[in-house]
Amino acid sequence: MRFLHTSDWHLGRSFHRVNMLSAQRAFLDHLVTVARTERVDAVLVAGDVYDRAVPPLPAVELFDDALHRLAELGVPTVMISGNHDSARRLGVGARLMAPAGIHLRTDPEACATPVVLRDAHGEVAVYGLPYLEPALVRDALGAARGDHAAVLGAAMERVRADLAARPAGTRSVVLAHAFVTGGAPCDSERDITVGGVAAVPADTFHGVDYVALGHLHGCQTLTERVRYSGSPLAYSFSEAAHRKSVWLVDLGARGEITAERVDCPVPRPLARIRGPLEDLLADPALDRHEDAWVEATLTDRHRPHEPMARLAERFPHILALAFEPEGAQDRDGVSYARLLHGRTDQQIAEDFVSHVRGSGPDDAERAVLREALDAARLHEGLAREAGR
User: Fold this and answer.
1) Residue 333 above 50 pLDDT?
2) How does it associate, per the subunit comment (predicted)?
3) Mean pLDDT for the chain?
4) Residue 270: pLDDT band by 50, 70, 90 thresholds?
5) What's the pTM value of the predicted model, to 2 decimals?
6) Which of 255, 247, 176 is closest to 208 using CA atoms?
7) SS3 helix, strand, coil % of the chain, rounded to 5?
8) Please, which residues have CB within 8 angstroms of residue 41's CB and are 6 or more apart in sequence?
C-alpha cells in the first residue's frame, strides 16, 4: 500500500510580511498531482492544517477545495488536528465526510478507532492521534501523569490493544503530532513544553509498521518506521537549509517499509547573509541571492544609515534585518530574537528572574514558574478550542 505523508500546512500563515496563500495553493496543486500520478492509496496529513484556531476565510476555502479534489480522485485522506488547529472546528462534519473518503481524526478518545484500508495483501489499520494537550486529555485517556510522554503512551496502549484484537497480519500506521526525541526543531514551531519536558521517546510507538509524524518543520527520519514529513513551505529563516518535501511510503505485505522524498514547489529561495553593509552590497558571491527572500545580519561596529533601503536596492525581496556588531563585549549589540534563540519558555522566565534580582531561581521557584507556564498553556488550549 502506498501512502503520501505530509503535515504542517499552516494554511493562512504568512512569511514575515509576505502572504503565502498562493504558495500554499501551489503546494496543494502539487499534492493532488502527486497523489494521482504516483497512484497513491491514501494521503496522511499529520496535523497543523491551519495556522490558528480561527483561520481566515481564504485559508478555509483553500482547505475545502483540496478536500474536494482528493475525494474526486477517490484517494482516502486521513487527517489529524495539530497544536495550531482547533480540534473541534477541524472535526466539524467528520462523520459526513467519511463516506467520501475524508477521515478527520480530532477526538483523543477515538484514537483507537482506525480507518481500515485494504489492498491485495489484507487490511491496514490507520490510527489518527490528534495533538494531545496533557492537561486536557489526561483523565480521558487514563494517563498516569500529565505530561506528553504519559498521554501519548496511554493513547498508544489503546492503539496496540485494538490492533491485537484484529486478524493476524493486519498492518498498522499511526499519525501523531508531537515532538519526538531525536527530532531537530526550528524557530517556526510553537513551544509545547509541559512540566519542563516537550519530547517523547520514539519507542512510544513500538509495534507499529509506520508512524507519520507532524509538528517539526524539517523532514527527518528518526528510525526506518518513524518519520517527520516536515512543512511543505518554509515559515522562518531557520529553515533556509531545509529541502521541503513529502514522503512517498510503500508498506509491503509483511510490514516492510520503503520511503522516497518528493520535493515540494519552492516559491522563492531563502538566504541568510551576514557581514558589514558595504561588503554585502559589493560581494559578487552574493549575486545568487538577489532573487531570494533575504535575512541580513549586519556586523558593522556602528549602525549604518538607512541599511534596509540600501540593501533593498540589491536584494529587492529582503524581509529581515538584524544587527550584531563585531567586537561587542556585552549583549547590547545582540538582537533580542538572537538572545532568545533556542531557549524554552522556562529558560527565558528563569533568565528574567536572574536579570531582575541578580540571582537565579531556586528549585521551589523553578517549580512555581513551571506550574505558571503550564497553566498558561492550558488556558491557551482552552481558548483555542473556544475560538478566542
Assistant:
1) no
2) Heterodimer of SbcC and SbcD.
3) 92
4) very high
5) 0.85
6) 255
7) 35, 25, 40
8) 1, 2, 3, 75, 76, 117, 119
